[in-house]
Amino acid sequence: MAYLIGVDCGTSGTKTVLFDEKGSVIASKTIEYPMYQPKNGYAEQEPADWANAMIETIKAVMAKSGVKKEDVKGIGISGQMHGLVMLDKDNNVLRRSIIWCDQRTAAEVEEMNRIVGRDKLVEITANPALTGWTAAKILWVKNNEPDVYSKVAHILLPKDYLRLILTGEYATEVSDASGMQLLDVPNRKWSDELLSAFEIDKSWLGKVHESCEVTGTLTKKMAETLGLCEGTIVVGGAGDNAAAAVGTGVVEDGKAFTTIGTSGVVFAHTSNISIDKKGRVHTCCAAVPNTWHVMGVTQGAGLSLKWFRDNFCMTEKETAKLMGVDEYYLMDKQAETVPVGANRLLYLPYLMGERTPHLDPDARGVFFGLSAIHTRKDMLRAVMEGVTYSLRDCVEVFREMNVNVSDMMACGGGGSSPLWRSMLADLYNCNVKTVASKEGPALGVAILASVGAGIYSSVSEACGAIIKTDKVQAPKAENVPEYEKYYQLYREIYPALKAQYAKLATL
C-alpha cells in the first residue's frame, strides 16, 4: 500500500493528515499558532510558526501511524492564500507575514488602479485590485518599510515557504499564485506587464507549476528530521479553496460546492476561463491542469445563524445541554415546522456588508415583512432562507458567465444541516450532496500528490477512485416554484435600499 501526506497550513493552525492511496485517514495531527494584530485592521503571522507546526505534525503522524517511510510516496501542501512572505538572499524572513485578512492596503489598491487601470487588472488577473491580495501588500511594504524592501530577494506565499523548508526550491503553483494579482490568469504565468508596472523584480518570485506537478523532493536534512525518505516528492499543492475542490471531487464541468461557514462560498469548476468584468466573483486557475474556477462569497452566512442563536435561542441552548445534542440540531427542528417563505418573512444576511453580488461594505441586515403573526421560529427559518437566497445570487452570476452548475456538494458547518441542504437543493434546483471524507483541503493536496507520484494518471481519475458521496438531497418539486417567488422578491429589496444604506453609513 502506498501512503500520501496532506499538509493544510491554515490561519488558526496547521493540520497534517496521512492517507493511504484510497483516501482513508491513517493518522492526523493539528498544531495551532497565534495571529498578531498590531493595529486595527492589521493581521500578521510568523512563518516560523507554520514551519514548526508542519515539521511537528508530519513527525507526529509518522510516529502515530507506524507506516514505513519507504511507503510514503508524496507530499502535497494546501495553504491560506494571499499571505506575503519576504526573504533576504540567505532565506531569512524579513518581517512577519501580512496575511489574507489584513486590510491596511487601501492606498495601494488605489495606486494599482491608477498605475494599471481597473479594467486592465481584471483582464490580466481576472479580478479587480483587492486589499487582501498579495500585490497590494508588496506595495505597502515598499511604501512604508523601505529598509525591509531593500533587502528582499524572494517573495513566497505561506504554503510555498513550507515547500522551501522541505525541498530548498523557490516554487509556487497556479491556484495560489492566482491570488497574488501578479499572475496572468488566462495564460497561467507571471505577468511581465504588471511586474514592470509595479517595479517588482520577477526573479523574486518562484517558478510557476501546475498543482499536481512535482516541484522538488525532500532534502536529506529534512528527511532525517521528519522520519521520511530523502527524495520523497513534493507536488505543487493548492490554495485552500482550490484544494478543497479537489478534496470534494469538484474537478469537472458542472460540478460545484457550497460551503456554509462563518461566510459562505459557492465555488464552480470550468474548463473555459470566464471573467466577470464587474468583479462580483473571483476567477482563479484551478488545481486541475488548464482549467479554472469561479468563486462567489457571501459575508454573513453561518454568521447570521450564529448571531440569531446567540441573541434569541437561549431556550434551545439550555434544552440542548440537557438532551446532550447540538443546539443547531434543535434550531433545525424548530425551523422545519415553518413553511417555505417563513410565512411571508424575508431576511437579508448583510451583517458584515456584502461581496457577491453587491460589493457593498455599507449593506446591512434586514427583516422584511415582519408582522405581529411572526414568531421566533419564523425568524429563524427566514434567516436560513435568506442565507440560501444570497448563495443563489452567486450561482446567478455564474450563469451570467456561462458557468453551468448541475452537481453541487455541500460543506462546512451549514452543510451538515439536512434542512439547509434541502433549501440549497430547492433553490439551485439540482441535487445537493455531501462527501464521506471531511478532510477537504488536506485530502485534496494528498490526491494531487498521488497524481505527481504516478499512482493515478490524472486528478479526475484520482477523485473518481477516492471521493465517495455520503448523502444526496434532491430538490422537492413542489418547493422549487414556491421558493422562486420569494427569491425574486428578495432580489428587489437590496436595490431599493442601496441609497439608504449609504446614508445610514454617514450618520
Structure, described:
- With 507 residues, the chain is α/β, with parallel strands linked by helices.
- Helix content is 41%, strand content 21%.
- The strands form 7 sheets. Strands 1, 2, 3, 5, 13, 14 and 15 form a 7-stranded mixed β-sheet that branches. Strands 18-19-17-16-22-23-24 form a 7-stranded mixed β-sheet. Strands 4-7 form a two-stranded antiparallel sheet.
- A hairpin with a 3-residue loop joins strand 1 (3-9) and strand 2 (13-20).
- Helix 2 packs across helix 4 (134-144), helix 10 (240-247) crosses helix 17 (440-452) and helix 12 (314-323) packs across helix 13.
- The longest helix is centred in the C-terminal third of the chain and has 28 residues, at 479-506.
**Major sheet characteristics:** 7 strands, mixed
Average pLDDT, rounded to a whole number, is: 96
Per DSSP E runs of 2 or more residues, the count of β-strands stands at 24
Number of alpha- plus pi-helical segments: 19
Catalogue the unreliable spans: none
Q: What is the strand content? A: 15-25%
Which radius of gyration do the C-alpha atoms yield? 23 Å
Structural class: alpha/beta
Distance separating the two termini: 65 Å
Helix content: 40-55%
What overall geometry do the principal axes of the alpha carbons give?
Answer: globular
Offer a quick outline of the entry:
By secondary structure, the protein is an alpha/beta fold.
Spell out the blueprint of helices and strands:
Layout: E1 3-9, E2 13-20, E3 25-32, E4 44-45, H1 47-65, E5 72-79, E6 85-87, E7 97-98, H2 106-116, H3 118-125, H4 134-144, H5 146-149, E8 154-156, H6 158-167, E9 171-173, H7 174-177, E10 183-184, E11 189-190, H8 192-197, E12 207-209, E13 214-217, H9 220-226, E14 233-235, E15 238-239, H10 240-247, E16 254-260, E17 264-270, E18 282-285, E19 292-298, H11 301-312, H12 314-323, H13 327-336, E20 346-348, E21 366-368, H14 376-400, E22 405-411, H15 412-415, H16 418-428, E23 432-435, H17 440-452, H18 459-466, E24 469-473, H19 479-506
Parallel strand pairs: 1-5, 5-14, 5-15, 9-12, 16-22, 22-23
Antiparallel strand pairs: 1-2, 2-3, 4-7, 6-8, 10-11, 13-14, 16-17, 17-19, 18-19, 20-21, 23-24
